[in-house]
Amino acid sequence: MKIVLNLFCLLVFSSVATASVDPFDIVVLADQSNQSVVFRTTVAFDRTTDFEIYSNSGDLIFQEELAPGTFLAKRFKQNNFGPGKYTIILADAVGRTELPVTMSSDNISTDRNLALRTQFPVVDLKSSGVLVVNCRNKPCRRISLRLTDKAGEEIFSEEVDGKASVRRSYQLNQLAAGDYLVTISSKDVQNYTAAFTLR
Asked: Which superkingdom (predicted)?
C-alpha cells in the first residue's frame, strides 16, 4: 500500500511541476483597513514568472517579473482600480494562467471557473534527430505546426486535429545542419515558437 501511495504522490507532484500557476493558488483580497487591493500566491514560483494586470479594454496596468522561489505579494491602493473587470496573468516558460477579477467600490471577486490555464507546447529534439512536439491543451478544431529554416523558408507544415492532446514526431536527420524554428498555433496558443539547431 505504501509503495502505491508513494507512486501516486510522485505522479501527482511531477505533473504539477510541469504546469503553470494553478488559479486556486492565486488570492485577491480587498483590505478595507487601508483601502488597498492585495494580490498574492499561496505557493512559490518554480521558475521566472511574469505578473501582469490588464483592464477589461486590454490596457496593461501593471507588470513585474518575479524570481523563482518567490511568492506573489503585491498591494495597491484601491483607488488605482476603478470599478470593472480586470485580468490577472501569471506566465512562465511552460504556461500561462489568466484569472478574471471583478472590482467594485466595496468588493472584489474572482471566478476560478472562468480562469484559463494554458500549457505551452513542448518541443524536444532527440539526439537521434527526431523532433518530438507535444501539445496538451483543451480540445480545439485544429493545431497548426510549421518548420522553417533560419532564412524563413518553410521546410514543411501540417494541420492536425486538436480534439485531443497532440504528440507528433518528425525524423529530421535528412535536413542540413543549421538553425530551425518550429511554430505552433492553436485556439489557446498563437504562434508559439521554439528554436533548435541540427548538428
From this structure: Bacteria
- Fold agreement (23-118, 121-198): yes
Separation CA 97–CA 16 (nearest Å): 14
Residues 152 and 142: their CA atoms lie apart, in Å, by 23
What is the pLDDT, as a whole number, of residue 104? 87
Helices (H) and strands (E) in the chain, counts: 1, 16
Query: Can you read off the three cell numbers belonging to residue 193?
Result: 515558437
Q: Tell me whether strands 36-41 and 26-31 are parallel, antiparallel or unpaired.
A: antiparallel
Low-confidence stretches of the chain (pLDDT beneath 70): 1-19, 137-141
pTM for the whole structure: 0.72
Looking at domain 23-118, its CATH class is mainly beta
DSSP state of 185: E
Residue 5 phi, psi (nearest 5): -65, -45
